[in-house]
Design brief:
The complex is a heterodimer of chains A (about 450) and B (about 110). With about 450 residues, chain A is an all-alpha fold. Helix content of chain A is about 75%, strand content about 0%. Chain A contains 14 helices and two strands, in the order αααααααααααβααβα. The longest helix of chain B is centred in the middle third of the chain and has 15 residues. The termini of chain B are far apart. Classes of the chains: A mainly alpha (about 450), B alpha+beta (about 110).
């Protein structure tokens, strides 16, 4: 038998601030939505919608992905994180850049503020990517998960670069096409290149792990990797240089890639030894089901089917919302309570296990709050999407209020975990443990 | 194995059942993470081979320490040695019948 190494976990002071910032961002995002119901009546190139999109993509999703990845990279890649200091630098730049960019977009200040914010964010992406690549270079058993993760950060840098060029193009126009043209590229390489590839890479390791499954057939994942990347590269090249109009074909490649990933997860679900799913995993499967909506809509907005322009504009908005407020948000809302309590528990109780009776990670958050959060979220999301599709401001407002309730419940639960304190631990003793204690705590 | 030695090893397994995997919620023995418990009588040492569900698991230090603490409390006169091993690789098939029941499989 070969001896194993000790834990590769990074400091909690690197990981946890990301969760705190992301939770606050989600509340801010939903509150901004309440005050943006008038922005959904036209084109997506609107200051309020640009603000919402960037708060969602950067302050909420990217922020929590950065933080959780510092914790999960050692789990997925089985190596220590290359540098915690670089992680902190990336966090500070991402936080400051997101705040400045959001204020800039909301007020439509497209000069120096936007440029400085864009450079901060791009620098943050570069630092983060360097850290991930250097971490991945230590990997001994290179797997398809590592391919997904490393490639996703390449797309993150590409997304940031297009963003910087657009930020400067506002004041000093130099790009040959209009802004919307590059915005489509920026959005799609960000969504499918950064978010999707990363989620597939990390999810393909974590979801089977949570389900207690070891699916050995990774053909679906390999197929997913090549199809999604090929679709994205062809889309980017075509969009920049050719404009042949084959976008539906590239979308089909990405969708087939997603199908490969889902097939892999289906295998894991069938092989899994945990039939009783907790709320976090149930919400994860809700997120995967919500993927169906953007998958259908990408073909509708690409092929258009002769639909009236007004309806198409609404469908574009629903398409974007179904990704950020749908799939990505649902996944984070679920996975937060699979990862965060565990991280806090580990740092709080690692010195006490075996000597004292300790709570379990699931005891660190409120299941009731989580249940109501999930209900408010799903009803709010449906109301928001229906309201945008029907261009009904009242329905949009109802959706925004319900999502705000979900966000406040989420943030409350996140801070309950973050502020958890160890107290009143009773020493462990066999004489007072009893048989029931075995399934409660050490 | 002598009867007395076997009894002590069995007691060690029973003691290790008090350690619960915090993510999965069942004990590490029924989860199949304890590969071997050996009593080295001449050294007065209890040796445990332990694994984790995945090599990158952040719980490695915590579970190892818990096992040491738990066994030390149960056998204060023995030296306790817990070794984390990766071979053979853990698979869900190593979960005991009791473990499967605790996970909700009927």
């Amino acid at each position: 038998m070969s001896a194993a190494t000790t834990s590769n976990s990074p400091s909690k002071w690197l990981v946890l601030p990301h969760y705190a910032f992301a939770a606050v961002s989600f509340v801010v995002l939903c509150l901004l939505l309440v005050f943006s119901t008038d922005a959904f009546g036209g084109h997506y190139f609107h200051p309020k919608l640009l603000t919402l999109t960037h708060v969602a993509a950067l302050g909420w999703a990217t922020m929590i992905i950065f933080g959780s990845l510092y914790q999960l990279l050692p789990v997925v890649l089985e190596v220590r994180l290359y540098s915690e200091k670089l992680g902190t630098a990336a966090f500070v730049l991402l936080a400051m850049g997101t705040i400045l960019l959001s204020i800039g977009f909301w007020n439509f200040w497209v000069g120096l503020e936007l440029q400085v914010a864009a450079i901060m964010l791009f620098t943050s992406f570069l630092i983060f990517s360097y850290n991930v690549v250097q971490t991945a270079r230590q990997v001994k058993n290179w797997g398809i998960e590592a391919d997904f993760i490393v490639t996703s950060v390449v797309w993150l840098v590409a997304t940031g670069l297009v963003g910087v060029l657009m930020a400067f193009n506002f004041q000093y126009p130099f790009l040959p096409q209009d802004h919307v043209h590059y915005l489509q590229l920026h959005a799609h390489i960000g969504m499918a290149g950064w978010f999707l590839l990363l989620i597939v890479g990390v999810g393909s390791k974590l979801i089977p792990m949570f389900l207690l499954a070891h699916p050995e057939n990774t053909k679906g994942l390999h197929g997913a990797y090549y199809l999604i990347n090929a679709g994205l590269v062809l889309f980017a090249m075509d969009h920049l240089f050719l404009q042949t109009g084959y976008n539906a074909l590239y979308a089909l490649m990405v969708v087939l890639g997603i199908a490969g990933f889902l097939h892999f997860l289906y295998q894991a679900k069938c092989l899994g030894k945990r039939p009783d799913l907790d709320l976090g995993m149930k919400q994860t499967f809700v997120a995967l089901a919500l993927l169906l909506l953007p998958i259908v809509l990408v073909f509708v907005v690409t092929l258009q089917f002769g639909l009236p322009q007004r309806l198409l504009s609404s469908l574009y908005l629903v398409y974007g919302l179904s990704i950020f407020f749908g799939f990505v948000s649902a996944l984070i809302l679920g996975q937060t309570f699979k990862t965060l309590p565990f991280i806090v528990w580990m740092h709080s109780y690692e010195d006490y296990v075996g000597r004292f009776k300790t709570p379990m990670p699931k005891d660190l958050y409120s299941v009731t709050l989580l249940r109501w959060q999930n209900i408010a979220y799903i009803v709010g999301l449906v109301a928001l999407l229906v309201g945008v599709l029907m261009a009904e401001q009242t329905v949009i407002l109802i959706g925004a209020v319900l999502l705000s309730i979900a966000a406040v419940l989420y943030a409350g639960n996140v801070f309950k975990v973050l502020l958890h304190k160890v107290k009143d631990l009773k020493p462990f003793g066999y004489e007072n443990a009893g048989t029931g204690a075995r399934q409660r705590s050490v | 194995m002598k009867t007395q030695e076997q009894e002590l090893v069995n007691e060690a397994y029973e003691a290790l059942k008090y350690i619960i995997d915090p993510e999965i919620g069942i004990n590490i023995v029924d989860l199949g993470l304890v590969y071997k418990v050996t009593l080295k009588e001449e050294e007065e040492k209890l040796h445990v081979d332990l694994t984790l569900t995945t090599p990158g698991c952040p719980m490695s230090g915590t579970i190892t320490t818990a096992a040491e603490q738990m066994l030390h409390k149960r056998f204060p006169n023995l030296e306790i040695e817990v070794e984390l091993v990766w071979l053979p690789q853990w698979t869900p098939e190593m979960i005991s019948e009791e473990g499967m029941r605790l996970l909700g499989n009927t």
